């Protein structure tokens, strides 16, 4: 029988996604004596994690492939064997998706906890001996209570008469996509919430293999759960704040980059997370703020709920504002016009498109009848089709004259494998993701391929304005009142 251990020997992580995969890869890499089993119901995702060609891993994260190569098959395993992996584990991480509910009570705001609950029930059914259950998913404050209730209902002896027991800890993950490995290897802090000091120290000792002790924070369960939602809300709030100022800059001749530098030099404000852009995307910010809004209302704090709701409202407004100003600058219509979209991922260095600003902006332009030529170095065309809920068309030939869709005014899109292909015949380029390759484009060459007058709409503020204008192109840059 497993007894409470200070030293954990076997970990099971349920959920092999953007958090479970990289987090467990780093734990396995840094703790070669611990066997780490990452399990998921999604067979194709697990097959991709096991692919001998590391370029086929299911998620793209700089540095992840090297770590997987070192640890996989040594003490890191990916499988669909959920039940035996739970049974063998001293510690089970729950790292499954917690999206916003789309129906029923709390629809559009509350987190959908059905996958978390399913995990708790599976742990309750399969765990043997003493098991520490760790909330790695981002969860509404007091979810640990639900997990504890499910586990306690099945606590008691297993079939061979051996006793079973559970402890629940909260250990939210603060990694950002695109920098996940760096964030995991040198975190600003690791947060562990719980009531059982033995279990807390067991988890702390894992992180302590590579994270300095002073960076491992211990709190009660509820502070830990609430800190995760609060961290994301504060970060997102900064983006909505700077985007609101960007709109003012555009009308007053100020430049948001200069304003950001001026205010960010105040150490109380700090310089990070002040880049104005097309609004925040990603699977976390919107979902977590909406969850905070829901919880605030649930606990009878409507003013607090309204305060946070406005962070999301401003973000949606920024995306719609950008689509509208593209149309306005292209003589009030984009129907039948080709527009090149540079970037579709919600930020650079990831293939993730969840809640990407590109989706809303592209949909707004498709509704206006635009023809979108989309280039992203990492996002697959099938993903774009699914996000836009519109299949791609065969790229229309420029020589063949106006296509059927152009004539009918229907919005269409097609994927491109390079920027030159995307700009051919286009009236405008929209830079939507800050991939580094978009910073050093040869605008003289690209301008020659476009239909004049042609525009560059730089929603990330990353191109060299002088190079664009000297190539004969018009430019709009987010928050730049001088363009
Ligand atoms: P994801 O959708 O990429 O991965 C979740 C995985 O869990 C999926 O592969 C799914 O098949 C699997 N799953 C669901 N139910 C299961 C079950 N019962 N048994 C086995 N597998 C199951 O999600 P993610 O981006 O990794 O996020 C996971 C959690 O971490 C969420 O709560 C999220 O808010 C939080 N988080 C995400 C990030 C991020 O950057 N993506 C950062 C910090 C925290
Ligand atoms: C975020 C949090 O940063 C991370 O701590 C948490 O664990 C998960 O959610 P992520 O969504 O992966 O991480 O990326 P992040 O770098 O935070 O960017 C989120 C969005 O904000 C992106 O669309 C990004 O382009 C945008 N952003 C970020 C800005 O528009 N301006 C900025 O200054 C920073």
What topology emerges from the helices and strands here?
Elements: E1 10-14, H1 20-30, E2 35-39, H2 43-49, H3 64-71, E3 76-79, H4 82-88, E4 91-94, H5 114-126, E5 130-135, H6 143-154, E6 165-170, H7 180-185, E7 190-193, H8 197-207, E8 216-219, H9 221-252, H10 256-264, H11 285-298, H12 302-329, E9 338-342, H13 357-367, E10 371-375, H14 381-388, H15 404-408, E11 412-415, H16 419-423, E12 428-431, H17 443-449, E13 455-458, H18 465-470, E14 474-477
Parallel strand pairs: 1-2, 1-4, 2-3, 4-5, 5-6, 7-8, 9-10, 9-12, 10-11, 12-13, 13-14
The structure holds nicotinamide-adenine-dinucleotide (NAD) and uridine-5'-diphosphate-xylopyranose.
Nicotinamide-adenine-dinucleotide binds next to α5.
Describe this structure in words.
With 483 residues, the chain is of the alpha/beta class. It has two domains: 10-219, Rossmann fold, CATH 3.40.50.720; 315-477, 3-Layer(aba) Sandwich (Rossmann fold), CATH 3.40.50. Helices cover 41% and strands 13% of the residues. It is built from 18 helices and 14 strands. The protein has helices at 20-30, 43-49, 64-71, 82-88, 114-126, 143-154, 180-185, 197-207, 221-252, 256-264, 285-298, 302-329, 357-367, 381-388, 404-408, 419-423, 443-449, 465-470, and strands at 10-14, 35-39, 76-79, 91-94, 130-135, 165-170, 190-193, 216-219, 338-342, 371-375, 412-415, 428-431, 455-458, 474-477. The strands form three sheets. A six-stranded parallel β-sheet has the order 3-2-1-4-5-6, with helices on both faces. Helix 1 packs across helix 3 (64-71) and helix 11 (285-298) packs antiparallel against helix 12 (302-329). The model has no long low-confidence stretch (mean pLDDT 96). The protein binds nicotinamide-adenine-dinucleotide and uridine-5'-diphosphate-xylopyranose. The site of uridine-5'-diphosphate-xylopyranose (UDX) has 19 residues, from helix 9.
């Amino acid at each position: 029988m497993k007894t409470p251990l200070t030293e954990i020997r076997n970990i099971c992580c349920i959920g092999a996604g953007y958090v479970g995969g990289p987090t467990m890869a780093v734990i396995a890499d840094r703790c070669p004596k611990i066997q780490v089993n990452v399990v998921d119901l999604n067979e194709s995702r697990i097959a991709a994690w096991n692919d001998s060609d590391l370029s086929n891993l299911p998620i793209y994260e700089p540095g992840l492939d090297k770590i997987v190569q070192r640890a996989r098959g040594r003490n890191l395993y990916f499988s669909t064997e959920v039940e035996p992996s739970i049974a063998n584990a001293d510690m089970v991480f729950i790292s499954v998706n917690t999206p916003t509910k789309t129906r029923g009570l709390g629809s559009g705001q509350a987190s959908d906890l059905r996958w978390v609950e399913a995990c708790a029930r599976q742990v309750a059914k399969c765990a043997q001996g003493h098991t520490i259950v760790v909330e790695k998913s981002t969860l509404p404050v007091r979810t640990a209570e639900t997990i504890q209730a499910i586990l306690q209902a099945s606590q008691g002896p297993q079939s061979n008469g051996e006793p079973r027991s559970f402890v629940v800890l909260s250990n939210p993950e603060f990694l950002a996509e695109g920098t996940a490995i760096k964030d995991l290897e040198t975190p600003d802090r690791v947060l562990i919430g719980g009531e059982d000091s033995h279990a807390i120290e067991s988890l702390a000792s894992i992180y302590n293999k590579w994270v300095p002790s002073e960076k491992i924070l211990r709190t009660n369960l509820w502070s830990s759960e609430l800190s995760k939602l609060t961290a994301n809300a504060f970060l997102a709030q900064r983006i909505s704040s700077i985007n609101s100022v960007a709109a003012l800059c555009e009308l007053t001749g100020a430049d948001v980059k200069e304003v950001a530098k001026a205010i960010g030099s105040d150490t109380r404000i700090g310089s990070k997370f002040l880049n104005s852009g097309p609004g925040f995307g990603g699977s976390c910010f919107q979902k977590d703020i909406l969850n905070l809004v829901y919880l605030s209302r649930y606990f009878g704090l409507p003013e607090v709920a309204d305060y946070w709701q406005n962070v999301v409202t401003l973000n949606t407004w920024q995306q719609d504002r950008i689509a509208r100003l593209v149309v306005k600058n292209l003589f009030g219509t984009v129907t039948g016009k080709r527009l090149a979209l540079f970037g579709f991922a919600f930020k650079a260095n990831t293939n993730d498109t969840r809640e990407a600003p590109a989706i809303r902006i592209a949909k707004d332009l498709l509704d206006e009848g635009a023809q979108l030529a989309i280039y992203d170095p990492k996002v697959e065309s099938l993903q774009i089709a699914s996000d836009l809920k519109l299949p791609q068309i065969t790229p229309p030939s420029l020589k063949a004259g106006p296509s059927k869709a152009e004539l009918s005014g229907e919005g269409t899109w097609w994927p491109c494998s390079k920027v030159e292909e995307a700009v051919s015949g286009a009236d405008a380029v929209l830079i939507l993701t800050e991939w580094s390759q978009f910073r050093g484009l040869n605008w003289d060459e690209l301008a020659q391929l476009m239909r004049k007058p042609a525009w560059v709409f730089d929603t990330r503020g990353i191109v060299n304005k002088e190079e664009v204008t000297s190539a004969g192109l018009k430019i709009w840059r987010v928050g730049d009142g001088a363009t």
